[in-house]
Amino acid sequence: MSDLEQRLASMEARLRRLEDEQEITKLILSYAPLVDSGCDQQVAGLWEEDGVYDVDEIFMRGHGQLSGMVRSSAHQAWISGGCAHFAGPPHITLDGDEATAVCYTLMIVNTPDGFTVRRATANRWELRRTPSGWRAARRTNRVLDGREESPDLLASHFPEAVRHRP
């Protein structure tokens, strides 16, 4: 392989990595506006058909359960009362056709006293490249309320990270 061919192959690999990271970021950041607008099918479509969404109080598997969560009376009450999910930018690690990402999310709700942060969570996404693009295989959320499980979830994304514990 000539020097030019090697450089071109390297550039193609770097471009693919950037495109993958952009697509994954777009997927992750799509969740909040889709769930806050009640677009149940589009929310479910962010996951693989049998994908998992593991939240502290609920465990969902598959498009039917994900869609059902968005359509539920509890979630519809959040929407009609005024709520905003906000996701921070993800830190993505690619490994071929699989990836992981961690980020924070906030759920902000409208109250009589104004907007209030209802919960702040640590998020870990496990993603796969599919024929239709990147999809979530599993998303795990844990409330950042002082339990060890939440920062452990974030640290698990960084293999070399060692958490200091008092």
UniProtKB/TrEMBL annotation:
SUPFAM superfamilies: NTF2-like
Gene3D superfamilies: 3.10.450.50
Span of domain SnoaL-like: 16-140
Keyword Coiled coil: yes
Coiled coil: 1-28
Keywords associated with the record: Coiled coil
Protein name as annotated: Nuclear transport factor 2 family protein
Source organism (scientific name): Actinocorallia aurantiaca
